[in-house]
Amino acid sequence: MVNAADKALTDATIQQYEDWKYACQQMRTEDMVKFVNVPDCEEGYPLFKSELPPGEQLVQHAIHPPPKPKPETRVTLAFGNFMYSKLVRLLKDKDIVARQKSVTWAVELLSVPSSRVRCLAAGFLPILAKMVVEKDMFIRQELALCFKYASASDTTWDDLCTLGCINFLVDMVADSNIILRGNALSALNDAALSDEVRKELVSNGKTLTFILKCINKEPDRTCMILEFDLLSKCVAGLNYDQMALTELLKVNAVPTALEISSFTFLDLKEAAVRFLCLLCFDVVGKEQAVKLNAVDIMIPYLYHTEPRIQAFGVAALMSITINIDAKHAMFNSKVPTPSAKKILIAQGVPVLLPMLDLNDDLLCLYILQLLINTAEHPKARAALKGGVTILRDMIKVCASALLKRCSRQAIQQLQFTSRPFKNLALVR
């Protein structure tokens, strides 16, 4: 027999459960996207069943299929009548926890294209730019991500420069926190797709030097790759930026690229060799690379098993061998091949013809240009004279007009035999 005390405890427990169950039944849990539709109203709340018209209450008791996930765009737009203006207010809240939560919310919204436009229209960017004075590390990390996703819209590029966000991200690169540095470099790389941001980075004449110094003391491989990619974007530009090249060549950018290219990590090697190729667009860069024996360092890339490493190595050689001394180095270099027999190759020239493979158009184009550059050396022409037949066969089967033109130019270069005037015999 149950005593009165146990019965009272059981009744109280059951009553709490019944109250909770009733509250859950009252909420429209199957459709939480209907809000009060009042113009300029920031607040919204899910309606109770008792607030619905009688006809809709009957629908609530019908048997419904299992709930399905809503599309991302529908969920985003459902809360649009109050979400953005409320978040703008919370970003300026005095409570640091509220600011942390709101800036995380801003990252999530800016990362979705359908909501990014509404965030920018609500005035997110000026408010985020004013938050750069924050001392909290979490907020600073999330701010960098906000600028990264905001830069995906081309309408924000001018504003990022005007509001000082680019300079703020550059300052973040000097921070000791790896996550903050990575987020800032990722944001700068995305923003550097625009001419305005690249001009902002190059114009003061100090930012690229600072980034290069960061590479020399960077302990994190991912951040180092991002730094190389950022410098490459600034150097490349629409064609190539002479101001950026001049600044970097004055601070030993070529030795840094050659040193990092010897690392074993393939992604880091790729970033360094790409940067070296761009530096050697300049005459001074070519001269520095030749003095540092860059041709000897790059020739093993012709034998690399990774196609992308091979392609960038050939591109770097293509850029360097425009220099006359580099043509001699290309022919006279002695570098061991990675074969089992440890055979010593007398020069880097003989490997060029076997690499003319139309299965990789980009690599084939680089090899053709490297062949044209190298064939200006008389001894190299003698070593490559068998390539005329190969190039003629390529012209017959190749579908690319660019490759056909380069093949014809290579044939013309290989068939060159003498200079038209005797007084030019000692030009080279």
TrEMBL record:
SUPFAM superfamilies: ARM repeat. InterPro entries: ARM-like, ARM-type_fold, RSP14. This is ARM repeat superfamily protein. It comes from Sphagnum troendelagicum. Signal peptide: none annotated. Gene3D superfamilies: Leucine-rich Repeat Variant (1.25.10.10). PANTHER family: RADIAL SPOKE HEAD 14 HOMOLOG (PTHR15599:SF1), RTDR1 (PTHR15599).
